[in-house]
Backbone:
């Protein structure tokens, strides 16, 4: 089992090439002088400059950032509570339905979630716009946060919280002084996950958004439908770069925290 | 207020119930209730109005409304072979791409689990990174590679492997590539998590007793990693059936997937009741795999 064979090495090389070559090509061709995406005509950053002059892309970016920031913050709050409820509250009434509602949004096709939310907003006579997209994003993001928090909760030793409660700490204080610091890395990764999910979402945003609230993925999608351009490559490169930066720093924070809590390892 | 009544109020509004109540209520209102609305509207008929469908409840003289439900949309879907074919094609495309993803994903997950410990963190990170990167952008990246005058054909032609450009873009093959590529991390992560926890002594015992590596792999490693395989397959299969972005951007006229049909009914034809009925049937098809997936997830927590 422990022997790492040539087959394993090959699987990793081929597998990771498959995962990364398309993204790397996308990044390379965003610096292409030519408008043709497949013919290299020299290095140029003119597509980035063009991007910064494109008002509709700037507007869409601002909408997306607002939605992602607000929805991920509220989703982290709700999802953390949900993750704790599912691991620590035992068999309360309606637990099966609750855990069903936590796991379902991750697998139910996006078109169904989008359609159902849109019809709800129409039924409630809510005007569609940034607010409704944010509500929709909170709903699916909180489920991802719940799962991340729940997996951290189920791996930590409950005797510390019991000790705090035995020594007379109130449940609320115990939560803020003991539980929250322990699960903090999970809460932070939950927030980052929600943020990128919101940043990425095209289908649900298309259903739940209204006039004047075009998100960046919606804008990119309408550009892609007109053809492949280096400008789309440029905006994609910026997004990929930001996400990579976020994921790498989250991993480093996590590693640092682990070293802080278990100095022996 | 009588003491018993106060007790009851305290019991309902104690801290624990309030904590459960916040996320519970949110999901009831914005996840479960919307499905009931979709179900309701799927029984309506399209009319030219705002909103564009007939009402379900007719409020008359009496206290209870009369219910006006029509099976019109369901009959329409069953009688028109376009919809049946789209459901079947979506299931077929999802099954085939799940199997391809499983083979590739297992090879990668298994190899990561066998790699030196110091590599594993970075390798896992490399799996997770694309999973965080925009789905739309990753699908878009393939257009430039697969199209007739794209990078793949450029490479194949210049190497002399083919003398005519291959037509991959706007075919089902492109859709398979797109689904496998986009969902690969969903397959690798649960399988890796499972293989990593495997009891190595069982594999060593098989080897000690003279079992050949290949047989050990088939008879010990694969069965033991079944929970990871199942979780990965569900995570790929269920969303793939209702996929919209991939068939829309990479598929062609031959690609008829139900997620795209639903999208077109809604946005292009503005037939909300029909789109709702398409969604209800899609959910009915997926409810068994979804419930099964949830059961395995529940078991994993306990």
Residues:
């Amino acid at each position: 089992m422990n022997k790492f064979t040539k087959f394993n090495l090959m699987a990793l090389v081929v597998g990771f090439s498959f995962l990364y070559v398309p993204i790397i090509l996308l990044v390379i061709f965003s610096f292409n002088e030519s408008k043709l995406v497949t013919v290299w005509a020299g290095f140029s950053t003119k597509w980035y400059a063009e991007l910064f002059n494109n008002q509709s892309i700037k507007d869409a970016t601002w909408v997306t950032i607002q939605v992602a920031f607000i929805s991920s913050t509220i989703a982290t709050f709700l999802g953390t509570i949900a993750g704790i409820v599912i691991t620590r509250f035992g068999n309360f009434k309606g637990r099966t339905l609750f855990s069903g509602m936590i796991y379902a949004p991750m697998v139910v096709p996006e078109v169904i979630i989008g359609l159902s939310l849109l019809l709800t907003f129409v039924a409630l006579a809510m005007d569609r716009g940034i607010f409704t997209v944010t509500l929709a994003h909170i709903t699916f993001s909180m489920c991802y946060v719940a799962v991340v928090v729940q997996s951290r909760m189920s791996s930590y030793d409950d005797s510390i919280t019991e000790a705090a409660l035995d020594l007379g700490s109130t449940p609320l204080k115990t939560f803020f002084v003991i539980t929250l610091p322990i699960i903090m890395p999970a809460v932070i990764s939950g927030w980052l996950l929600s943020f990128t999910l919101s940043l990425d979402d095209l289908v649900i945003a298309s259903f739940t958004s209204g006039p004047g609230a075009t998100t960046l993925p919606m804008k990119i999608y309408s550009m892609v439908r007109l053809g492949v351009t280096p400008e789309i490559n440029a905006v994609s490169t910026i997004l990929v770069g930001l996400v990579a930066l976020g994921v790498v720093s989250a991993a480093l924070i996590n590693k640092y925290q682990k070293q802080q809590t278990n100095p022996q390892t | 207020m009588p003491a018993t009544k106060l007790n009851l109020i305290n019991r309902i509004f104690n801290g624990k119930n309030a904590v459960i109540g916040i996320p519970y209520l949110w999901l009831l209102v914005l996840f479960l209730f919307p499905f009931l609305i979709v179900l309701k509207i799927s029984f309506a008929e399209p009319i030219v109005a705002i909103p564009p469908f007939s009402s379900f409840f007719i409020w008359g003289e009496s206290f209870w409304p009369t219910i006006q439900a029509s099976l019109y949309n369901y009959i329409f879907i069953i009688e028109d072979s376009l919809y049946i074919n789209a459901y079947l094609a979506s299931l077929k495309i999802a099954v085939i791409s799940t199997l391809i993803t499983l083979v590739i994903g297992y090879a990668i997950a298994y190899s990561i689990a066998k790699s030196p410990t110091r590599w594993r963190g970075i390798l896992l990170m490399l799996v997770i990174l694309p999973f965080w990167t925009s789905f739309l952008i990753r699908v878009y990246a393939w257009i430039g590679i697969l199209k007739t005058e794209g990078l793949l054909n450029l490479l194949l032609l210049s190497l002399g492997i083919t003398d005519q450009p291959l037509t991959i873009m706007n075919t089902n093959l492109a859709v398979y590539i797109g689904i496998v590529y986009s969902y690969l991390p969903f397959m690798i992560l649960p399988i890796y998590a499972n293989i990593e926890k495997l009891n190595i002594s069982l594999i060593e015992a098989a080897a000690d007793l003279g079992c050949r590596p290949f047989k050990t792999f088939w008879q010990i490693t694969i069965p033991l990693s079944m929970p990871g395989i199942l979780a990965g397959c569900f995570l790929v299969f269920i969303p793939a059936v209702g996929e919209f972005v991939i068939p829309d951007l990479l598929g062609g006229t031959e690609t008829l997937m139900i997620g795209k049909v639903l999208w077109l009914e809604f946005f292009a034809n503005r037939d909300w009741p029909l789109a709702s009925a398409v969604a209800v049937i899609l959910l009915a098809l997926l409810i068994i795999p979804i419930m099964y997936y949830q059961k395995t997830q529940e078991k994993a927590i306990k």
